[in-house]
Protein backbone atom coordinates (compact mmCIF):
# COMPACT_ATOMS: atom_id res chain seq x y z
CA UNK A 1 0.00 0.00 0.00
CA UNK A 2 1.38 3.41 -0.97
CA UNK A 3 1.92 5.87 1.86
CA UNK A 4 -0.14 9.07 1.40
CA UNK A 5 1.98 12.08 0.49
CA UNK A 6 0.94 13.94 3.62
CA UNK A 7 2.18 11.07 5.80
CA UNK A 8 5.42 10.73 3.80
CA UNK A 9 5.98 14.49 4.00
CA UNK A 10 5.43 14.44 7.78
CA UNK A 11 7.93 11.60 8.21
CA UNK A 12 10.53 13.39 6.11
CA UNK A 13 10.03 16.66 7.93
CA UNK A 14 10.37 14.90 11.27
CA UNK A 15 13.71 13.46 10.15
CA UNK A 16 15.06 16.81 8.95
CA UNK A 17 17.56 18.22 11.40
CA UNK A 18 15.93 21.62 11.37
CA UNK A 19 12.50 21.25 9.86
CA UNK A 20 10.90 24.62 9.50
CA UNK A 21 7.36 24.67 10.84
CA UNK A 22 5.85 28.05 10.09
CA UNK A 23 8.34 30.62 11.35
CA UNK A 24 9.83 28.53 14.17
CA UNK A 25 12.60 25.93 14.05
CA UNK A 26 12.17 22.36 15.25
CA UNK A 27 15.02 20.60 17.06
CA UNK A 28 17.57 18.37 15.28
CA UNK A 29 16.47 14.80 14.75
CA UNK A 30 17.48 11.69 12.81
CA UNK A 31 20.04 12.82 10.20
CA UNK A 32 23.53 12.75 11.68
CA UNK A 33 25.62 15.92 11.70
CA UNK A 34 28.32 16.21 9.06
CA UNK A 35 31.23 16.84 9.03
CA UNK A 36 32.90 16.52 12.42
CA UNK A 37 34.51 19.54 14.00
CA UNK A 38 36.90 19.92 16.89
CA UNK A 39 40.57 19.46 17.66
CA UNK A 40 41.37 16.77 15.07
CA UNK A 41 39.29 18.16 12.22
CA UNK A 42 39.79 21.04 9.82
CA UNK A 43 37.25 23.38 8.29
CA UNK A 44 34.94 22.40 5.43
CA UNK A 45 36.99 22.13 2.22
CA UNK A 46 36.51 24.78 -0.43
CA UNK A 47 35.78 24.09 -4.09
CA UNK A 48 35.40 26.12 -7.25
CA UNK A 49 32.32 28.31 -7.55
CA UNK A 50 31.93 27.20 -11.17
CA UNK A 51 30.91 29.40 -14.10
CA UNK A 52 27.29 30.01 -13.04
CA UNK A 53 27.43 32.10 -9.85
CA UNK A 54 25.20 35.20 -9.89
CA UNK A 55 25.75 37.82 -7.15
CA UNK A 56 22.95 39.59 -5.26
CA UNK A 57 20.59 36.61 -5.06
CA UNK A 58 17.26 37.27 -3.30
CA UNK A 59 16.90 36.81 0.46
CA UNK A 60 14.63 33.75 0.78
CA UNK A 61 14.50 30.24 2.20
CA UNK A 62 12.30 28.74 -0.50
CA UNK A 63 13.74 28.38 -3.99
CA UNK A 64 10.84 26.15 -5.04
CA UNK A 65 8.23 27.66 -7.35
CA UNK A 66 4.76 26.15 -7.94
CA UNK A 67 4.72 23.86 -10.97
CA UNK A 68 8.49 23.39 -10.95
CA UNK A 69 9.59 19.93 -12.18
CA UNK A 70 11.73 17.73 -9.96
CA UNK A 71 11.89 15.96 -6.64
CA UNK A 72 11.26 18.32 -3.75
CA UNK A 73 14.36 18.79 -1.57
CA UNK A 74 14.72 20.34 1.86
CA UNK A 75 18.37 20.92 2.69
CA UNK A 76 19.71 22.36 5.94
CA UNK A 77 22.27 22.12 8.66
CA UNK A 78 24.47 24.23 10.89
CA UNK A 79 27.32 26.70 10.51
CA UNK A 80 29.93 25.98 13.19
CA UNK A 81 33.33 27.36 14.15
CA UNK A 82 36.37 25.07 14.49
CA UNK A 83 35.45 24.44 18.14
CA UNK A 84 31.94 23.21 17.22
CA UNK A 85 30.23 26.39 18.41
CA UNK A 86 27.27 27.61 16.33
CA UNK A 87 27.78 30.75 14.26
CA UNK A 88 24.86 33.15 13.92
CA UNK A 89 24.28 35.66 11.13
CA UNK A 90 26.40 33.75 8.59
CA UNK A 91 25.42 34.52 4.99
CA UNK A 92 24.49 31.25 3.21
CA UNK A 93 24.05 31.59 -0.58
CA UNK A 94 22.79 28.52 -2.50
CA UNK A 95 22.39 27.91 -6.25
CA UNK A 96 22.08 24.85 -8.49
CA UNK A 97 20.84 23.41 -11.78
CA UNK A 98 17.20 22.57 -12.39
CA UNK A 99 15.66 19.11 -12.99
CA UNK A 100 16.97 19.18 -16.59
CA UNK A 101 20.53 20.18 -15.64
CA UNK A 102 20.18 23.85 -16.66
CA UNK A 103 21.18 26.95 -14.68
CA UNK A 104 19.23 30.19 -14.84
CA UNK A 105 21.88 32.69 -15.94
CA UNK A 106 19.53 35.59 -16.60
CA UNK A 107 17.53 35.64 -13.36
CA UNK A 108 17.40 34.08 -9.90
CA UNK A 109 15.53 30.79 -10.43
CA UNK A 110 16.92 28.22 -7.95
CA UNK A 111 19.12 30.88 -6.36
CA UNK A 112 18.81 32.52 -2.97
CA UNK A 113 20.49 33.43 0.27
CA UNK A 114 19.69 33.66 3.96
CA UNK A 115 21.45 34.19 7.29
CA UNK A 116 21.91 31.57 9.99
CA UNK A 117 19.81 31.99 13.13
CA UNK A 118 21.11 32.37 16.70
CA UNK A 119 21.80 28.62 16.83
CA UNK A 120 23.73 28.58 13.55
CA UNK A 121 20.90 26.90 11.61
CA UNK A 122 20.20 27.33 7.88
CA UNK A 123 17.68 25.69 5.53
CA UNK A 124 16.35 25.90 1.96
CA UNK A 125 13.35 24.31 0.25
CA UNK A 126 14.18 23.58 -3.38
CA UNK A 127 14.34 20.69 -5.86
CA UNK A 128 16.87 17.97 -6.56
CA UNK A 129 19.22 19.16 -9.32
CA UNK A 130 19.82 16.91 -12.33
CA UNK A 131 23.04 15.33 -13.44
CA UNK A 132 24.52 16.99 -16.50
CA UNK A 133 27.44 16.07 -18.79
CA UNK A 134 30.75 16.05 -16.98
CA UNK A 135 29.37 16.62 -13.47
CA UNK A 136 27.71 14.65 -10.74
CA UNK A 137 24.62 16.01 -8.97
CA UNK A 138 25.64 18.91 -6.68
CA UNK A 139 24.64 22.11 -4.92
CA UNK A 140 26.80 25.25 -4.92
CA UNK A 141 27.16 27.16 -1.65
CA UNK A 142 28.92 30.26 -0.38
CA UNK A 143 29.10 31.05 3.33
CA UNK A 144 30.45 34.22 4.90
CA UNK A 145 30.56 34.91 8.62
CA UNK A 146 30.32 38.55 9.62
CA UNK A 147 33.72 40.16 8.99
CA UNK A 148 35.07 36.75 7.90
CA UNK A 149 36.37 35.06 4.77
CA UNK A 150 33.98 33.56 2.23
CA UNK A 151 33.87 29.76 1.96
CA UNK A 152 32.86 28.65 -1.54
CA UNK A 153 32.16 24.95 -1.93
CA UNK A 154 29.84 22.30 -3.38
CA UNK A 155 27.71 19.60 -1.72
CA UNK A 156 27.13 16.09 -3.07
CA UNK A 157 24.56 13.32 -2.83
CA UNK A 158 25.70 9.91 -1.50
CA UNK A 159 23.31 7.85 -3.69
CA UNK A 160 25.11 9.03 -6.86
CA UNK A 161 28.08 6.71 -6.35
CA UNK A 162 28.90 6.07 -10.04
CA UNK A 163 28.67 9.72 -11.13
CA UNK A 164 30.50 10.86 -7.98
CA UNK A 165 33.38 8.52 -8.86
CA UNK A 166 33.60 9.97 -12.40
CA UNK A 167 33.45 13.62 -11.32
CA UNK A 168 36.95 15.13 -11.33
CA UNK A 169 36.33 17.51 -8.39
CA UNK A 170 34.07 15.34 -6.21
CA UNK A 171 35.22 15.26 -2.56
CA UNK A 172 33.69 12.70 -0.20
CA UNK A 173 34.10 15.15 2.70
CA UNK A 174 31.31 17.18 1.06
CA UNK A 175 28.72 14.37 1.00
CA UNK A 176 25.43 15.29 2.63
CA UNK A 177 23.41 12.92 4.76
CA UNK A 178 20.14 12.27 2.92
CA UNK A 179 16.82 10.50 3.31
CA UNK A 180 13.66 10.29 1.24
CA UNK A 181 12.35 9.00 -2.05
CA UNK A 182 11.56 10.05 -5.63
CA UNK A 183 8.86 12.48 -4.47
CA UNK A 184 10.61 14.27 -1.62
CA UNK A 185 14.07 14.26 -0.05
CA UNK A 186 15.83 15.85 2.88
CA UNK A 187 19.55 16.49 3.23
CA UNK A 188 21.84 17.74 6.00
CA UNK A 189 25.29 19.25 5.99
CA UNK A 190 26.98 21.09 8.84
CA UNK A 191 29.65 23.54 7.69
CA UNK A 192 32.77 24.14 9.78
CA UNK A 193 34.20 27.58 9.02
CA UNK A 194 37.77 28.72 9.61
CA UNK A 195 36.71 30.81 12.62
CA UNK A 196 37.48 30.42 16.32
Written description of the protein model:
This protein has one domain (44-192): Protocatechuate 3,4-Dioxygenase, subunit A (Sandwich). It has two helices and eleven strands. It has helices spanning 5-15, 161-166, and strands at residues 20-21, 24-25, 72-80, 91-95, 111-115, 121-127, 138-144, 151-156, 177-180, 184-188, 191-192. The strands form three sheets. Strands 3, 6, 9, 10 and 11 form a five-stranded mixed sheet that branches.
Strand content: 25-35%
- The level of helicity is under 10%
User: Radius of gyration in whole Å, from Cα?
Assistant: 16 Å
Low-confidence parts: 1-29
Question: How far is the first residue's CA from the last residue's CA?
Answer: 51 Å
**How do the SSEs run, as a string of H and E?**
HEEEEEEEEHEEE
The class by helix and strand makeup works out as: mainly beta
Number of helices: 2
At the fourth CATH level, what is the homologous superfamily?
Answer: Aromatic compound dioxygenase
How many structurally independent domains? 1
The pLDDT mean sits at 85
Q: Which CATH class?
A: Mainly Beta
- CATH fold field value: Protocatechuate 3,4-Dioxygenase, subunit A
Amino acid sequence: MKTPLTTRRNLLLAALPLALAGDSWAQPSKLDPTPACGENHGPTPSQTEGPYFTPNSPLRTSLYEPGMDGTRLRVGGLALDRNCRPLSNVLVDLWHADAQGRYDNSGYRLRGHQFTDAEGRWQFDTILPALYPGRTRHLHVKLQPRDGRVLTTQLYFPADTASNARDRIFDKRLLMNTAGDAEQMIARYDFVLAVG
